[in-house]
Design a protein that fits this description.
Helix 1 (31-43) runs parallel beside helix 2. Strands 2-1-3-4-5 form a five-stranded mixed sheet, with no helix packed on it. The longest helix has 13 residues, at 31-43. It is built from two helices and five strands, in the order βαβββαβ. The chain starts with 13 loop residues before the first strand and ends in a 6-residue tail after the last strand. It is globular and about 40 Å long. By secondary structure, the chain is of the alpha+beta class. It has one domain (11-109): Glutaredoxin (3-Layer(aba) Sandwich).
């Protein structure tokens, strides 16, 4: 495979891993909730381009089935649970824009690549 053949991504600062699997909630994170997440990221100026861009990524299972839907912010190593639309808005405003982790929604902190 030559470098030309490899997939390309625009630069991003953080990646959101979002559980859409059927195990942590009855439907995982629904399409409506994912649409709401994308709208909120866009409204905050985080979805397209820019230095602070966030790349949302749907995953089938994050291995933490109770307490879902689950969302993990990388490279910060912060795992959030029970992601309601209000919690999504809070994480975007406080963590992704403001740089303050929303401690009351965190259930795990993993290894971090963040400075």
């Amino acid at each position: 495979m030559t470098p030309r053949d490899k997939p390309q991504f625009d630069a991003y600062r953080r990646q959101l891993l979002i559980c859409v699997g059927p195990y942590c909630t009855e439907d995982g994170m629904t399409r409506q909730a994912l649409r709401h997440l994308a709208e909120q990221l866009d409204a905050a100026g985080l979805l397209y381009g820019g230095e602070a861009r966030v790349k949302p990524t749907r995953v089938h299972c994050l291995g933490a089935c109770s307490g879902g839907p689950i969302m993990c912010v990388q490279p910060d190593g912060v795992w959030y649970c029970e992601m309601t639309p209000q919690h999504v808005e809070q994480v975007i405003a406080e963590h992704l824009v403001g740089g303050r982790i929303v401690d009351e929604l965190v259930f795990h902190r993993g290894p971090t690549g963040a400075a």
